[in-house]
Amino acid sequence: MHKVIFDTDPGVDDAMALLFLHHHPDIDLIGITSVFGNASIETTTRNALFLKQAWNIDAPVAKGANETYNPNRPHVDWPAFIHGDDGLGNIGVPETVDIPCDSRPAHRFIIEMVRANPGEVTIVAVGRMTNLAIALREDPEIASLVKAVVIMGGAFDRPGNITPAAEANIHGDPEAADVVMTAPWPVTVIGLDVTVQTVMTRSLLADIVAAGGPRARLLSDISQFYIDFYENHVKDGMVVHDSCACVYVVAPELFRTRSGPIRVICGGIADGQTIQKPDSQIFPPNDWDNLPSQQVCIAVDPKGVLDLIAGTL
Ligand code: BDR
Ligand code: CA
């Protein structure tokens, strides 16, 4: 059983990933931490509570960061054209949801859950890395107590999706991402290199709804705005970025990874770019030598991933 904290900015593909975590029999979802990204922190937190209530999810929601790790970084606008003004496809989520958040801020929640379950917690982070970076700043020892960190973010051997250099989750807070990728904990990064290959068609979504009842119906309603956006770009369906990171936790055999330290460019025209130095490549001594080696996904079995998502939902 994998004890998972889901750090998320719901977000349409975040919502699907949350439902996957909730339903998968090998996952014990012990907490949901919100972060700004696909919408403001107020909206993503409200959405996390809304989904928790709608899907009857036990895990507490802890509200996360409102601004970037480096307070001097200028604000980046929300991608309302992808996820809708309400972050969930403009389905008309109520302004407020009548259940409370956990009393702790997200970074404190992460620290306390990791300390209470040493060696057991997997953090799946599918938004800005801000909460994780603050948790590391406040309690660096948690790096040695976490079982694994699985991230949806970055673009290593291809262009980004928000600039030619950067993927959105990393571009939204590059300093935080650099802290998280260079910390001495085991990180696996599932970036655009593999996520853009996992495209859920309307017909597969319809099959999930047909078999999955009201929960799947809500997911389908939420997804329509996002699928319209992706069909203008990908043509035949929606990219399920965040679910890929969740699938990796239970089925890593569906992915191939490359090991080596990772850095994030902070500033300039390549702001938010992710770079890995493959361990297999030899260079003269340099600043990368003492960084921890992390895993970057470089190949995926898209059908295997989509089958597992559909079967679980
Ligand atoms: C990432 O950005 C967000 O729009 C998605 O939820 C996903 O986490 C993809 O670049
Ligand atoms: Ca996300």
TrEMBL record:
Gene3D superfamilies with a match to the protein in the record: Ribonucleoside hydrolase-like
Pfam (any one): IU_nuc_hydro
Domain Inosine/uridine-preferring nucleoside hydrolase: 4-306
Alphabetical UniProt keywords: Glycosidase, Hydrolase
CDD domains referenced in this protein's UniProt entry, alphabetically: nuc_hydro_CaPnhB
Keyword Metal-binding: no
Protein name (database record): Inosine-uridine nucleoside N-ribohydrolase
Organismal lineage: Bacteria, Pseudomonadati, Pseudomonadota, Alphaproteobacteria, Hyphomicrobiales
